[in-house]
Amino acid sequence: MPAIRRWRSRLDNQEREHQEWRDSREVVSFDDEPLVLVDHEDREVGFLDKASAHVGKGTLHRAFSIFVFNAKGELLMQQRAPGKRLWPGFWSNTCCSHPRRGETIDNAIHRRLSEELGLQCGLDYLFKFEYQAQFDADGAEHELCWVYAGRSDDAPTVNVNEISGLRYIAPDALDAEMAANPGTFTPWFKMEWERIRRDHAHVFAPRSAG
């Protein structure tokens, strides 16, 4: 496996591999939070609680995905917490979630990045797309997802209710791992990464100091 910089939460207070990482236990996800239902053109058509929106084949709702890269152009990836209803333990992009009823996308992306990772950085809109992915007979994602990218070299404060592991990985190493172990990554992340690689490579170009 390619060399990667890793951090995993230690819920039993054992020594961490990287002491610079900090953690938080704030509860930031709720089954009854109202999500924004949309049509295929991303027009609002109603609202539905998060739990119900992911039942069966899922009800189309607005979502977002965030990709944060460091100065080297490495992607900060998260491993989803084991308590997640959908795709627990899978590797995914830096952060993903939903705007709530009455909340703008711009507010939602910065709120969630802070809630999950304690990070604040500029985020640029890349594209949006619709997808449906079935996890099991009882649950799925069906989202119209807005995708953003940003840069940060700050150390995260990891919300252990949302995230069980973090790592930085270079784009070429990520491509190799995806090819070797595609079943360990969330479906939306794989779709988004393919398009970022193809159309938005500038977002992970290494940046020189100063």
Helix and strand layout, with pairings?
Elements: E1 5-8, E2 22-24, E3 34-38, E4 44-49, H1 50-53, E5 61-69, E6 75-80, E7 91-92, E8 95-97, H2 105-117, E9 123-136, E10 139-151, E11 157-159, E12 163-169, H3 171-180, H4 187-199
Parallel strand pairs: 2-11, 5-10
Antiparallel strand pairs: 1-12, 3-4, 5-8, 6-7, 6-12, 9-10
Question: Short description, anyone?
Answer:
This protein is α+β, with helices and mostly antiparallel strands and 210 residues long.
Write up this protein.
The protein has 210 residues and is of the alpha+beta class. It has one domain (5-202): Nucleoside Triphosphate Pyrophosphohydrolase (Alpha-Beta Complex), CATH 3.90.79.10. The protein is 19% helix and 36% strand. It contains 4 helices and 12 strands. It has helices at residues 50-53, 105-117, 171-180, 187-199, and strands at residues 5-8, 22-24, 34-38, 44-49, 61-69, 75-80, 91-92, 95-97, 123-136, 139-151, 157-159, 163-169. A 4-stranded antiparallel β-sheet has the order 1-12-6-7. A hairpin with a 5-residue loop joins strand 3 and strand 4 (44-49). The chain is globular. The two termini are 32 Å apart. The active site is at 96, 143. Residues 59-191 form the Nudix hydrolase domain. Catalyzes the 1,3-allylic rearrangement of the homoallylic substrate isopentenyl (IPP) to its highly electrophilic allylic isomer, dimethylallyl diphosphate (DMAPP). Mg(2+) binds at residue 116.
